[in-house]
Design goal:
The chain is 74% helix and 4% strand. Helix 3 (100-133) packs antiparallel against helix 5 and helix 8 (199-232) packs antiparallel against helix 9. It has twelve helices and five strands. The strands form two sheets. The chain has a three-stranded mixed β-sheet. A two-stranded parallel ribbon has the order 1-4. The model is unreliable at 4-13 (pLDDT under 50).
Length: 325
């Protein structure tokens, strides 16, 4: 990366940092926003870590569906920790600067996790497709070894996805302002500050985004079309409700994630939505990790039962400790 503050060779100033404007245009709301995002961060981390702990410790949750859910919760803890601590520090101290290396690192981690999340969502939808549409073949097609291999491929592929984009980004020259009109280092705001040719970067980003979002989305969509068609053919109302309850939580999370993601990256250039770009980014970057544990725990019978048993074990343990003391 060649960060330069001025295009004229005789008056060049080396830029060593970006300024994330974030929500700095709302000075009267800084304290309120800090408290709001702090609560979101704490609840998100606690909820996802709780799901990971339940999936690991409860034998009834040692199934492919909850294995994928545990991986998703692990991803969400990384996801929200990439964005929110830096945002909270800016809101608390007013210091909105971030170094070039820090900005590029944040972009790489965030892009990797988004790509991995798209792949995990497709795996979870495929798992539900096999369970509902191909129940007789489910055990053979979705055993522990296959689940581990597919999940490992998702993580590795996700973290390889942003590398070509990042290598091209490091070759950009930046001129004039170093203010990023966003609350984190995203691709579009960084490109807008570049004074060198970004055509190769635009093409590479488009190709990679298409590869790592469109096929997983189409697989997820096809899986749910097949699932809904299968559910509608179930003769009993009780059977239909039971079948749909096993995938409705996943469908809600996927709809929120892809809906806001498409709005930000495909429609944000329209005049009507440009000013709302940061708001939609909050939805998929901050609220989706929060909604994941809430939706799965509140709507999933097995998770609620595991949570109840964990609470009972904790109560019994405390009682024993009190008696022994």
């Amino acid at each position: 990366m060649k960060p330069v503050a001025n295009k004229h060779p005789g008056n060049q100033t080396i830029i060593t940092e970006f300024i994330l404007l974030g929500f700095g245009d709302l000075p009267q709301l800084q304290t309120l926003l800090f408290l709001l995002f702090l609560v979101i961060y704490v609840v998100t981390m606690a909820g996802n870590i709780l799901i990971i702990a339940l999936v690991v410790t409860d034998q009834h949750l040692h199934t492919p569906m909850y294995f994928f859910l545990g991986n998703l919760s692990c991803l969400e803890t990384c996801y929200t920790s990439t964005l929110l601590p830096r945002m909270l520090a800016s809101l608390l101290t007013g210091d909105r600067t971030i170094s070039f290396s820090g900005c590029i690192t944040q972009f790489y981690i965030f892009g990797s996790l988004v790509a991995t999340e798209c792949l995990l969502f497709s795996l979870m939808s495929y798992d539900r497709y096999l369970a509902i549409c191909k129940p007789l073949h489910y055990a053979a097609l979705m055993n522990g070894r296959i689940c581990l291999q597919m999940t490992a491929c998702s993580w590795v592929s996700g973290f390889l996805a942003p590398l070509p984009t990042m290598s091209l980004m490091l070759q950009l020259t930046f001129c004039g302002t170093n203010e990023l009109d966003h609350f984190f280092c995203d691709l579009n705001p960084i490109i807008k500050l570049a004074c060198s040719d970004t055509h190769s970067l635009d093409v590479a980003a488009l190709i990679l985004c298409s590869i790592f979002t469109l096929p997983p989305f189409l697989l997820t969509l096809a899986s749910y079309v097949s699932i809904i068609a299968t559910i509608l053919r179930i003769p009993s109302t009780t059977g239909r409700q039971k079948a749909f309850s096993t995938c409705s939580s996943h469908l809600i999370v996927v709809t929120i994630f892809y809906g806001t993601l498409v709005t930000v990256y495909l429609l944000s250039n329209s005049a009507a939505l440009r000013d709302l770009n940061k708001i939609f980014s909050v939805f998929y970057g901050v609220l989706t990790p929060l909604l994941n544990p809430l939706i799965y725990s509140l709507r999933n019978k097995e998770v609620k039962e595991a949570l109840s048993k964990a609470g009972i074990r904790f109560f019994v343990f405390n009682r024993k400790m009190d008696i022994s003391s």
